[in-house]
Amino acid sequence: MGSLIRWLFRLNDTPKLIFPPSVATVTVRKSNKSEDVADVSLQELVETRCPSLHNEFRPAWWLPSGHLQTFYCVMGDFSKVDVVNYDRTLLRTLDGGTIGLDFTPVGDQSHFQKDTPVIVVLHGLTGGSHESYVRAILAPACAHPEQGGLGYRAVVVNFRGCAGVPLTTPQLYSAGHTDDIRTALLYISSKYPDAPLLGVGFSLGANVLTRYLAQEGERSRLSAACAIGCPWDLVANSVRLRTNWWSRQVYSKGMASNLKALLQRHIAAFEAHPNLEVTKAIPQVFQSSWTRTTLQQFDDTITRIAGGSSPPFPFPTAEDYYVWASSHTMLGDVRVPLLALNAEDDPIVTVLPVHVEGIAMSPWVVFSTTNGGGHLGWFEDGSQPAHPLRWFRRPVLEWLKAMGDDVVLPKVSARPLLEKDGWIMEEGRDDLGCHEISGGGRVVGAEGEEGLLAGL
């Protein structure tokens, strides 16, 4: 009701900007490609280079609430909106797993400079490169500057088993497991050694992204990032999903339904290992009494066991997994510029770290919230159902352009790469590595979304 009243009376929905008590300083070019630079705070950078974060967001008249924004994100037809094609590369990891990297633009790359920024995208819960929220950023970001784009490259990291990527071990992914993005960045860094890598994460992928940045600190291979719709405190937000009737019946069970469908697609990968704890647990997920499984039930049965490598998996309960996987307590450890965007009426992410006392924010974090927008929606006034426009594309593109073109990013201080017996690895770590395998190919438009609820 509050969202409807705001829309009817056109009440102000200018994004709120939250900065830490101490704000980091970056070096900025005074003009494009200029050698003339100045040191400015991140706050001043946002004020001058990200105007959309200071302008009003007005939800589309036909989507005045967070529930409607989220429903449309899930149920809308975006197949002909922001069409992006990809060239897929499959990576084999040291533990036998498979990660799918979807690169865009496709075709001839000779016109790109060696230092053209590369956007590295992490998708939501059961998504992939086909998701409309991913394409809403990549379509303009990878368009030629003469067409109003940024002219950047991009790659979407599809998690194990997602978006048509085969599951080759009995291990899935989770909101807390970061070794797969860490491994993917080894390959991307080797492919584009002179290019700054800019991370963009959505929902679950935003949580993985934030945890990676915090864990790596100054060694991050990503020079800057943006986290959109991050769930942050998995414990607090799971309580809301579990205790609110509407949230439990619609959102929790909808996300669990997607996870069950994904598990069903890859059941053979588990049946090849009949003695594993997770394999023995799978039949329970498909019992008739579990026809409307909640997200916590699925996590308590499957994710806590198979959501990452051992250790730390398996966890005793889903609650223990949620405590470990949350990212809100790690915001103080981030050491590269990070823009976080959340909507206050998001029905899935209802508890934000800026609402909680005692959560430390690194000087490198900029947090922005809007009153409206739902979960990964932000469909704005002036949009029509046939051509919906997402407000978040504007501030995200402004942030990426500022980081890719304007800020003089420091040289990445990650551990050196090395090749060992055909594996791309990192000096000082023998537990991570990858090499390219066959089975990639062209991914066209919205391919890969069939059979699952999109937008989550």
TrEMBL record:
Record-level Gene Ontology MF annotations: acetylesterase activity; monoacylglycerol lipase activity
InterPro entries assigned: AB_hydrolase_1, AB_hydrolase_4_sf, AB_hydrolase_fold, ABHD4
Superkingdom as given in the UniProt entry: Eukaryota
Residue ranges occupied by any AB hydrolase-1 domain in the UniProt entry: 117-350
Biological process according to GO: medium-chain fatty acid biosynthetic process; medium-chain fatty acid catabolic process
Active site feature: 203 (charge relay system), 346 (charge relay system), 375 (charge relay system)
Record-stated family: Belongs to the AB hydrolase superfamily. AB hydrolase 4 family.
PANTHER family: ABHYDROLASE DOMAIN-CONTAINING PROTEIN, ALPHA_BETA HYDROLASE 1, ISOFORM A
Protein name: AB hydrolase-1 domain-containing protein
High-level lineage: Eukaryota, Fungi, Dikarya, Basidiomycota, Agaricomycotina
